[in-house]
Amino acid sequence: MRLPVGRGPASAMLVEALSGVPGRLSFDAVERWRTDGSVDVAAIGDEDLQLFLFTCYELHYRGWDGVDERWEWEPSLLAVRAVAEHRFESALRRVVGPVPAVEAADVPAALGTLVADDDGPSLAAELHRRGDLARFREFVAQRSVYHLREADPHSWGIPRLDGPAKAALVEIQMDEYGHGQLPRMHAELFRDTMRWLGLDTGYHAYVDSVPAVTLAANNLISLFGLHRRWRGALLGHLAAFEMTSSLPNRRYGDALRRLGGPPEATRFYDEHVVADAVHEQIATYDLCGSFAAAEPARAADVLFGAACCLTLDRLVAEHMLASWARERSSLRLPIALGH
């Protein structure tokens, strides 16, 4: 997987540095993030910041072609990344707003209320009613950044848990990974959808094409997953993800069938209609409920993670729908078809 093209001074500096041997990085390119004391929600849509973080985080997943693997734990890179993360976290807190205090026993009910109160636009409804192949292909390219490594970011939580919460997370992740059968892994089912649409199924093939807000939605899970202090937020994110999945995936599958998609193209969405209806209950009660009972001081973190998930999903949907309303692509670059 080739390094992305920089989108500003910080990401360009990082990409250039990663092309060489590990060495000390300067704070110069990120100085504006460190010295600016304001809390700017625009950081979520900052192309330079989000690509910088995404490029850093990928070092902890599958890495970049030609990049020395020692960069993953280069102290100066971690220090510079922390500056970008602080900027991102501050923006998240501002856009999400304060999370109400909650008793540990009330976490499942509070998650239900949070999801029920979410009034973001329905991307699934738009594609179900009016989506054509071009827009569906664009939507799938956007989602490929997550779905081609589906479950991996949340799996960072497994070694950070114990007891019932750990067992619940493993139960959910086993489904995501197809119970060890490659053709049933959700990432592989998504590749089948991409192939039918004529898209490039390569891992992160569309990173250069997607906008900052899409990268931010992916960076959010990595931020929570890679920091033990955010383990509660990671679980809340997963719960919100599962609780808002079944109905949209039914609509995506029906939309693709309307567009002529065969069973192998719609199987990814059909699988999630069934699996996520079960995962919703596991994630809400067995995962988040058990975690909050074991670590009541982190109950609010669970709600924060869920609120972040819903907020960034809403921002991604708003971006795509607004772009389409103007008869414009929601992507930065045209889609390259597969091979």
From TrEMBL:
InterPro entries with a match to the protein in the record: Haem_Oase-like_multi-hlx
Gene3D superfamilies: Heme oxygenase-like (1.20.910.10)
Domain of life: Bacteria
SUPFAM superfamilies linked to this entry: Heme oxygenase-like
Pfam families: Haem_oxygenas_2
Protein's UniProt name: Heme oxygenase-like protein
